[in-house]
Amino acid sequence: xxxKIANTPSAPATTGKDSDGVHKKASIHDVAxxxxxxxxxxxxxxxxxxxxxxxxxxxxxxxxEDLSYRPNxxxxxxxxxxxxxxxxxxxxxxxxxxxxxxxxxxxxCRNEGYHLIVEVLDSKDPNLSKAVQALVTESVLxxxxxxxxxxxxxxxxxxxxxxxxxxxRIAPARHIADAPEVSIxxxxxxHDMTAYLIGLGHRRIGFIKGHPDHGASHARFEGYxxxxxxxxISFDESYCMQGFFSYQSGMEAAEQLLSLPQRPxxxxxxxxxxxxxxxxxxxxxxLKVPGDLSVAGFDDSLVSQVVWPRLTTCRQPISxxxxxxxSMLIQRPADGALTIRRLDHELVIRExxxxxxxx
Amino acid sequence: xxxKIANTPSAPATTGKDSDGVHKKASIHDVAxxxxxxxxxxxxxxxxxxxxxxxxxxxxxxxxEDLSYRPNxxxxxxxxxxxxxxxxxxxxxxxxxxxxxxxxxxxxCRNEGYHLIVEVLDSKDPNLSKAVQALVTESVLxxxxxxxxxxxxxxxxxxxxxxxxxxxRIAPARHIADAPEVSIxxxxxxHDMTAYLIGLGHRRIGFIKGHPDHGASHARFEGYxxxxxxxxISFDESYCMQGFFSYQSGMEAAEQLLSLPQRPxxxxxxxxxxxxxxxxxxxxxxLKVPGDLSVAGFDDSLVSQVVWPRLTTCRQPISxxxxxxxSMLIQRPADGALTIRRLDHELVIRExxxxxxxx
DNA sequence: TTTCCTATTGACAACGCTGTCATCGCATGA
DNA sequence: TCATGCGATGACAGCGTTGTCAATAGGAAA
Lengths: 359, 359
Hints:
- The structure is a homodimer of 359-residue chains.
- Chain A has 359 residues and is an alpha/beta fold.
- In chain A, 42% of the residues lie in helices and 14% in strands.
- The first copy, chain A, has 13 helices and twelve strands.
- Chain A has helices at residues 28-35, 39-46, 54-66, 73-79, 95-112, 128-139, 154-163, 186-200, 215-230, 247-259, 272-284, 302-306, 318-330; strands at residues 85-90, 115-120, 143-146, 166-170, 181-184, 205-209, 240-242, 266-269, 294-296, 313-315, 340-343, 346-348.
- In chain A, the strands form three sheets. In chain A, strands 2-1-3-4-5-11 form a six-stranded parallel β-sheet, covered by helices on one side. The first copy, chain A, has a four-stranded parallel β-sheet with strand order 7-6-8-9, with helices on both faces. A two-stranded antiparallel sheet of chain A has the order 10-12.
- The longest helix of chain A has 18 residues, at 95-112.
- The radius of gyration of chain A is 27 Å and the shape is elongated.
- Chains A and B meet through α4, α5, β2, α6 and α7 of A and α4, α5, β2, α6 and α7 of B.
- Chain A binds a DNA duplex (30 and 30 nucleotides) through α2 and α4.
């Protein structure tokens, strides 16, 4: 306030401003002084520790309010084990997938007073484990969220264990003891979708597999097979193409499927991007969707609603999964060591599927 | 090494492992001891400070290597002004836009040894400025990157200035003195696209505006108008629809445009999502693209390649923009106070545009 | 030779918080 | 009445860095 005539009415607080008009941040000492207690008591209140009288508690809280005090993240992290920082590691799957995860994680983080630090890793990098190690030693994360295909990378997993950093794996391929994960039941979901197509009357159902490095790919394929089996339809290898979750790979697979002498009346692709590619190829083959060919995807990503006809797909609650992962990270391990969290999927029926042509 | 027979040959390092097999992190003291210098000298080497002899420098570096030491982010942030943490603030524009920005920012951060902390804000939130303030006081960010529509939010800008936090705005609507920004020339880009359509022979060109809160929206509209004017085509208000960057809004706008008695032969939408919607509506109206109707988008997002026909669009180097923003944040303000950084756009011609039908 | 500089290095105090342990006051039970 | 226990509080020492300032050595200048 020096050099200025302070004619402002006694403002909400007397947080000092320096000559630049920049707020000086209040520290725990300021709060303590204002509340007439020791800094330790302030710390107690802020961390909801027991053994503080209600009276002091309110007094401290109002001092906090007045000074708009927020504890310094760095100081906290340095002094205690808790760091309030969660890492989200990914290796560039589709934009919408990452964005969805991130959104869910952020929401939960905000509620809990945590922050999210994101990091891209290259799962093909030979120095992957070094990179992970560097990351966690440097920035003392409370825990990290692993997304596919990182969820199943031994290098990453080992590095994290070595460093003693907690982690949660999203949609991993394999279960690992003591490695918490959250996923949907991909097998069941793919089963449901296939069964739905069969229910429409389809018998020749093509399938485009996902990237072999992604755990979900295998599960989805199994689900497809089991539904066929259940309906007494014999499995035909030529109806199964290897895709890689990319639009491009979807096109190639679709070209082959639709060139078959007895072409399928329905194609189930392991994700929406590839399903969208099927749509494009169908147009090229002059096939009407869904009149001549039904197409189903997986993920319920933006793409599925942006193409025409809109895709029948399977919605997985990506945001909820990420939120759950954050919660698992935050909650102390003691609270019932629930290591596998499975969320519900949902079939989303749109215009790209219909009964097969009555030939 | 207590309680174990150390028969390993003198391994890369003697980083202690405790009984859980978890690496104890090396601190600057360990490095100092191993190199036979004081911690301050280690600090000097790590921060590339002058006045350290080459000999000690190498000695320290090899100790760092041996112990795979990485300085603790929190301690650094606490002790110095530099924090190595950059905030990316966004308010949920399209997934691909955010993902692109984030990717670019991450790459540059990694190179510079910085980390990225992401945060979602709600630009409609009346407590927005409080939220920003809380964020920056709490976590001592080196600087933040603002994405539209946050780039133009007075609440955010004021809160940041008040807190003395540096920021860079991505694609803001208005220039503000001393507020660094990075953008493309949206006006010119839209001009180019419109001119391209005119060049194909189109005279009735519909336009779908972007969200009015986004700065780029106005600039793109201006570019459209100026290109028309330049070609001597009179501006027709009924060919201009208000959109909001969403697929839904694109559909509504397209419905209206295509219902016009004299419908346009080309439609230029302010982003790809809306352009994709135009494609869908065109199909509903039984119009062939590009035979009966040309469609152009903006952004070169994934969507533009996933629809059929693929969209002619304008690529803006989103990743590069974010990377540039990071650089601007990191580089000291003294280094030539370059506050506006403008990157190049690029027209991407695909299958959704062609000469108008020869009626 | 002596003096002065400069390049190199180190000791030590922050930074803002939490953990540990000591202290105080008051109610309880013997 | 006095010891005992417990709830409430505070003093103080770190956490792992960087900033400040002092100390030392070796070379140039006088």
